[in-house]
Amino acid sequence: MKAGILIGHIKNKGNEGAIIRSAEAFGCSLVFVIGNKEKIYNSSEGCDRHMTFLEFKDYNEFIGYAKSNNHKLVCIENLNKSVGIDDIEKYPVNPIFITGNESLGVPEELLKNSDLLIKIPQGLGYANCLNTGVAMGIVLHDFFRKEINKKVELWESPYRKRHTKK
């Protein structure tokens, strides 16, 4: 399974970096970028060295590539027709996870071509949406827990050994 994320439409570099770090931690190896990827490297804390970046000039080029390579678009958006994250038993094979930009949400072109729409139920606070990096982290952790953690033996990173408190 080749899982990936789409970035490039996120405005905040900190959010992009958080999304890349979460993706790397939870088993995604592909980063699909709309536009130029150079600005991303500074915010990814070195995770970019362990992932494959693919650049596209626009959403149509990206969608064409994804569909022709058997990827499934998984959009994280709080819509009535979205499936609650707790109701997902199995994620599609070769998913590309997409979250919205900080003010506009997931672009309409991506929503129309989505194979799965996911929402994260909320109900105790005033806000009706989560930060884009937080939402992606929640969904990627759920994907990891349901799909990857069962199938692979987790390895102990030398970096984690060096930086773990005793």
List the helices and strands and how they pair.
Elements: E1 4-7, H1 13-25, E2 30-34, E3 52-56, H2 59-68, E4 72-76, E5 83-84, E6 95-99, H3 108-112, E7 116-119, H4 132-148, H5 158-163
Parallel strand pairs: 1-2, 1-6, 2-3, 4-6, 4-7, 5-7
Helix pairs in contact: 1-4
Task: Write a brief structural summary.
The chain is 31% helix and 18% strand.
The CATH architecture classification is 3-Layer(aba) Sandwich
Q: Strand content of the residues, in percent?
A: 15-25%
Assigned CATH class: Alpha Beta
Q: Approximately how much helix is present in the residues?
A: 25-40%
Low-confidence stretches: 157-166
Question: Mind explaining what this structure looks like?
Answer:
By secondary structure, the chain is α/β, with parallel strands linked by helices. The protein has one domain (4-163): 3-Layer(aba) Sandwich (Alpha/beta knot). It has 5 helices and 7 strands; from the N terminus they run βαββαβββαβαα. It has helices at residues 13-25, 59-68, 108-112, 132-148, 158-163, and strands spanning 4-7, 30-34, 52-56, 72-76, 83-84, 95-99, 116-119. It has a 7-stranded parallel β-sheet with strand order 3-2-1-6-4-7-5, with helices on both faces. Strand 1, helix 1 (13-25) and strand 2 form a beta-alpha-beta unit. The longest helix has 17 residues, at 132-148.
